[in-house]
Amino acid sequence: MPPSTALRGGAWIPHGFRFEPHSHSDGQLVYAAAGALATTTERGTWVAPAHRVTWTPPGFEHAHRFYGTTDARLVTVPVDLCDELVAHPSVFAVGPLLREALLALTDRAEARPGAVRRLLAVVIDELATTPEQSLHLPEPHDDRLRAVAELLHADPGRSATLAELGRAAGASERTLSRLFHAELGMSFHRWRTTLRIHHVLAQLSKGRSVTDTAMECGWSNPSSFIDAFTEIVGQTPGRYQADLRNHSR
């Protein structure tokens, strides 16, 4: 596909809409100018709230799910430009220049020959110098870890200890703790917190209150919830929800 005719555009997507697993020969950026989306591959799930953009390199099978009514912006990155970006799915922060470039690419037709390619160069320059901010939840392959993950996916607010979950999964706490570090590269506590934050983002995108969402997702102490959310997302839940309202206007 010639670079100037690369697929790009925007649409309002209803809450809960899914794109089933598929892949592309080119790279793909999906930006939620309002709302949020999750991108899932065999390596796990990445969540992009309204101030982040997802990147999926060529050839990766992936699926999308949208949370809240989402102003989704899609930009195809021609394969000859993809080597400028990381070779794995990721999420990046969206600063003012990157946001305006993505909106310009998806809001209007190409006014002059080569304009799309030049805007894509701006986008790639911005992404190449922006640290990854991957709200990445890796999915386990070990059967014992998968059993634990399924229990927590079904009820993210479940307060069971790793030992209690281990009894249900048929593994000791020590074995599961070792597997979390060896296979997923993080502690059980970190994995469960990230899972909960994924659910929090989905609920906040639907307009749920911060307090109700925190309690539903397993936090009884508001300050500990705010600390966890800010550490992973990069802003307080109140600031995040205010940004959602501003972006949806």
UniProtKB/TrEMBL annotation:
PROSITE patterns: HTH_ARAC_FAMILY_2. The keyword Nucleotidyltransferase does not apply. Residues 146-243 form the HTH araC/xylS-type domain. It comes from the Bacteria. InterPro entries: AraC-bd, Homeodomain-like_sf, HTH_AraC, RmlC-like_jellyroll, RmlC_Cupin_sf. The keyword Methyltransferase does not apply. Pfam families: AraC_binding (PF02311), HTH_18 (PF12833). Keywords: DNA-binding, Repressor, Transcription, Transcription regulation. This is HTH-type transcriptional regulator RipA. It comes from Streptomyces lydicus.
